[in-house]
Design brief:
Two copies of one chain form a homodimer.
Chain A (H helix, E strand, L loop, with lengths): L5 E5 L3 H13 L3 E5 L2 H10 L4 E5 L7 H11 L5 E5 L4 H10 L3 E4 L4 H18 L8 E4 L2 E4 L4 E4 L4 E3 L2 H12 L4 E3 H9 L4 H18 L5 E6 L3 E6 L1
Helix pairs in contact in A: 2-3, 3-4, 6-8
The first copy, chain A, binds a DNA duplex (30 and 30 nucleotides) through helix 6 and helix 8.
DNA sequence: AAAATTTCTTAACGAAATGTTAATATGTCA
DNA sequence: TGACATATTAACATTTCGTTAAGAAATTTT
């Protein structure tokens, strides 16, 4: 069962980081590993995460500094700190930044897992409050991205696959404007490379087939840049 | 500066309990102290609290049992457990019940305070308790989720099992909208994994069998997302 | 407290949905 | 034109779902 949750793990000890990443991956989380605060911040900005696990003691940029930077961008994303020893000061600073929890190394992986589940559960309840827009009208279509249904007025309805759905949503949110390839790839495929790019093309083709029902709608390519959903 | 927050502290060691109560009181919390699970449950019912701190090891009724009883009454109140040693099993059980956190004795009081603040901060947004609705009408059915009875108008009535009942209630509360799998699993099964997911499918099948009596009602699956109870 | 009944979990497996990759064709730009 | 980017289709691999059935666990009845 794929949990669909993305975790950013920032840990400078490569062995420990690797093991922890594998453990979380086995437990069905998508894990991105960064080895220091700088890389962590870059990766945090490049794609979207549901939770961050930050080691506090790291070279170049420590976990607390990274946490502050992350909090500036995102006020709600859950943060879990890993502290080498029981450094009370670090723990208190962490809470001040808005940590959700901390764990003292060495810790039990099952307990980390329980914490993660517990934190993600309560956040998902809170996020119901968050008013995410999911109903759109464009051309002769109405589109519900929560139910993943695209319906042609006085025509048929299509059930969209998750990828189709995400891609169409991004196009619609940028209606008549450029949707840069990289942005879409990093958000939907979580990586931008040759293969994900080919995959995206496949999905653009699928969407074009749906949108064919309205002659006035087009997804045009901007060579080397991305795609643009437009009318006329 | 009175924080106005009420804490229920259940701790069997009278000395420690007293000290902890005083410490929290100094920090502007209203603290009610109970010395065992039985007294704790009584006091919980007598007035309203914003947070509970429960010692796990207690005579008569331990903290986990008390927690379960509290959770039956109140699904959202934050629970913090105190464990004498780092008893992994207790910790994991605690999370399964829906703990927000745990602390290992001996712990630092400042850290407890930081945890309490952190937990109350995030909860204070959500604590809008609604009156529990338990009577529903949909399609040709009326459904009483307190009595667990689903009755087909001019047809027969079905006694629902607890799980059938909870699941149907969640579907009805999200009528015509998506009920995400994870949300339902975490609420009803308290865990989302391969097995609970299979179990949920079994229950969806059971509900579909009941709802067959009204041809216009359907529970449809949104692949990878969840289920949707809808009409027509 | 034993027996009967109901509820719940787990396993197995086929069916359906989804995603990736390959192969090949077409288009764009310098 | 040559190099590279994009388009489309098809084959394949993987994941998710639906159902049945067997047995474990809990609850109720006798």
């Amino acid at each position: 069962m794929k949990s669909n949750k993305n975790i950013l793990l920032v840990e400078d000890d490569p062995n420990f980081g690797r093991i922890l990443k594998d453990y979380l991956t086995i437990n069905n989380y998508e894990v991105t590993l960064a080895v220091n605060g700088i890389e962590g911040f870059e990766k945090f900005n490049r794609s979207e995460f549901d939770l961050c696990i930050l080691d506090i003691m790291m070279p170049f940029k420590d976990g607390l500094t990274l946490a502050r930077e992350i909090r500036e961008i995102n006020e709600v994303i859950p943060l879990i700190f890993l502290t080498a020893k029981n450094l009370k000061d670090d723990v208190l600073k962490g809470y001040k930044i808005g940590a959700d929890d901390y764990l003292t190394k060495p810790f039990d992986s099952e307990i980390l897992l329980a914490k993660i589940k517990s934190i993600l559960n309560r956040k998902s309840n809170v996020n119901i409050e968050e008013k995410d827009v999911f109903e759109f009208e464009f051309g002769e279509f109405s589109f519900n991205s929560k139910l993943r249904i695209l319906s042609h007025k006085m025509g048929e309805s299509y059930k969209l696959s998750p990828k189709e759905n995400q891609l169409l949503k991004m196009l619609v949110l940028n209606f008549d404007d450029l949707l840069p390839r990289d942005i879409a790839l990093n958000k939907i495929w979580r990586d931008a490379n040759y293969f994900t790019s080919r995959s995206m093309d496949v999905y653009i083709a699928k969407l074009r087939k749906y949108l064919d029902k309205d002659m006035s709608l087009k997804i045009i390519n901007v060579h080397g840049e991305g795609f643009r959903l437009m009318q006329e």
